[in-house]
Automatic annotation (TrEMBL):
It comes from Vitis vinifera. It comes from the Eukaryota. The chain crosses the membrane at residues 39-60, 67-87, 131-158. GO terms for molecular function: transmembrane transporter activity. It is found in: Membrane. Its main location: membrane. InterPro entries: MFS_dom (IPR020846), MFS_sugar_transport-like (IPR005828), MFS_trans_sf (IPR036259). The gene is PHT1-4_0. GO terms for cellular component: membrane. Keywords: Membrane, Transmembrane, Transmembrane helix. This is Inorganic phosphate transporter 1-4.
Length: 175
């Protein structure tokens, strides 16, 4: 039996990439965004993160890390709320405002990355510095996990209360 499994795995290792592989990746589920829209929403956040790292890293050196860190926190909170309240008369407008706020959210998150670790290393003593810096980066994982759980709970509650149609079926009325 083990030999048969190894033969199957060997055949998969030698197989050419075919159209099937790409259609399996792009399979749509009801209630999901089209791949191009999903890529835009995620891509603008990553571009904002890169720009935020460069800008807030530089600004933290000029103005002081603690005060600039406060600015990044305010920016993240405001843009997180604004992302959830994206507005528009039609789907493209809603997605455009979502992408706008996601860019600025990414910009704030990008500033948080270099500043949080640097502040922690500057204010921790020699004995606990490594553990505190590890905790800073570990909290990012916990935050991602908590954010996913909150999103699932809010989405389930919204769907239960309003039974909203998927993105593709939505027809917004003009104001």
């Amino acid at each position: 039996m083990a030999r048969e499994q190894l033969q199957v795995l060997s055949a998969l290792d030698l197989a050419r990439t075919q159209l099937y592989h790409f259609t399996a990746i792009g399979a749509q589920k009801p209630g999901t965004l089209p791949p191009s829209v999903s890529a835009a929403v995620n891509g603008v956040a990553l571009c904002g993160t890169l720009a935020g790292q460069l800008f807030f890293g530089w600004l933290g050196d000029k103005m002081g890390r603690k005060s600039v860190y406060g600015i990044t926190l305010i920016l993240m909170v405001v843009c997180s709320v604004a992302s959830g309240l994206s507005f528009g008369n039609e789907r493209k407008g809603v997605m455009a405002t979502l992408c706008f706020f996601r860019f600025w959210l990414g910009f704030g998150i990008g500033g948080d990355y270099p500043l949080s670790a640097t502040i922690m290393s500057e204010y921790a003593n020699k004995k606990t510095r490594g553990a505190f810096i590890a905790a800073v980066f570990a909290m990012q994982g916990f935050g991602i996990l908590a954010g996913g759980i909150v999103s699932l709970v809010v989405s389930a509650a919204f769907d239960h209360r309003f039974n909203a149609p998927s993105y593709e079926k939505t027809q917004l009325a003009p104001l």
